[in-house]
Amino acid sequence: MAQAGVVLDKDQFNCSICLDVLKDPVTIPCGHSYCTDCIQNYWDQDDYLAVFVCPQCRQTFTPRPVLARNTMLADVVEKFKETGLQEVTTSQTNQSFAEANDVECDVCTGRKNKAVNSCLVCLASYCEVHVQPHYESAAFKKHKLVLASRNMQDNICPRHDRLLEVYCRTDKMCICYLCLADEHKGHDTVLAEAEIQQRQRQFSEMKQSSNLRIQQREKEMQELRQAIFSLTRSARAAAEESDAVFTELIRSIELKRFEVRELIKAQEKMAISQAEQLLDKIQKEITELKKNEAELDKLSHAEDQVHFLKSCQSIHAPPTTSALPSVTTDPNLTFGPVMKAVSDFKGLLQEVCQGGFVSIYERVRDVVIVGPSNPAVQLDTAESGDAGAAAQIEGTLVMQRPGLVQSPLSPLNPYLYSGPVMPKFGFSPFGSKLSSGSRQRQLQRRAHHRRK
């Protein structure tokens, strides 16, 4: 390793729990490595929680992961020790001087090195060189090391100059052991470590609950996006299909218009042809009568008696005129009844279309993704006292809040509203308001009238 020109740092092979070189290294699922005994002892403290946390990245594991020795890392650590790079890197790290934002070692003289640990008992911070006695000497065995901190005095009781090792739940503050016999006597107190463990358990439960809520919300968000996508695709398909249906209806109406126009022309042609044939027949009859009349007038002026008598034998009686069919002699003869039938058809078609449009509007309005949070459904009635009579609009259900009046989003669609106000009555093309029940009765009356 040294011959290859690779510079290794001692911290790369240190266990973050014991801060020493890895011994029998194992790698947990998140990728961090620890000494076998260190990680087992660390997890044994949280065994009753059934949730095991990585000391570095704080990732949780359930159930407890099975530990297996990292053979490759163990070989690298052994080679690291054999080549003596540990001492080399130690001497290099001794020269890691403290920068502006670093914690300085309290033991170094002259230019101070960067502190890596602080002792809560000594109330001092140490670099890698000066912290070694805390690991090697039995006198420092009970000292507690933490990461280097600037605020060491915050861990000392300002009154008794003792370490704050007790937590008072009554006053919600950290105190020392001497405070227990003074102003905090009789209070609910526990060791600070016990309180920290309890708070960590609470935070772990809160984190799990928060993760479950996040997963639930993410699932709902995904379902909502899927619903929006599906509705958009369905709306596009419905619009295209409705365009095709209405285009076919328009073609059908155009065809009926052409058929009515051709029917009127054919009727006109047939009626005129019959009238012209009758006119030609009458004309021939008049010509024949005039011819006989001329012969009779000629004989009536003849002076030769013999010739008169002979000519009388050749004169026949005038032909009898045949009975003529009934002829309409009204000079203002028009297709008025036809136009009335067309107008009636127009009114019937408009009513049928209006009923169909109302049904379409109601179905369109019912297609929603997010419904009202607290809908109040009530019966909407309208009363009129102009002639002392009351008329009730039947079958009309509205959803509205008291005192709220809303206008439709589109003037072409009076059934789509921005809020919960959704009236179901429609307006006919002539401006008269029709409810579903009254429109149905009008259609039934019109149907009875046509059957008569």
UniProtKB/TrEMBL annotation:
Segments of skewed composition (Low complexity): 432-441
InterPro entries per UniProt: E3_ubiq-ligase_TRIM/RNF, TRIM8/14/16/25/29/45/65_CC, Znf_B-box, Znf_RING, Znf_RING/FYVE/PHD, Znf_RING_CS
One matching Pfam family: TRIM_CC
B box-type domain boundaries: 152-192
Region (Disordered): 432-452
Coiled-coil segments on the chain, per record: 207-234, 265-302
RING-type domain segment(s): 15-58
Keywords linked to the UniProt accession: Coiled coil, Ligase, Metal-binding, Zinc, Zinc-finger
Biased composition (Basic residues): 442-452
Molecular-function annotations in GO: ligase activity; zinc ion binding
Protein's recorded name: E3 ubiquitin/ISG15 ligase TRIM25
Annotated source species: Channa argus (Northern snakehead)
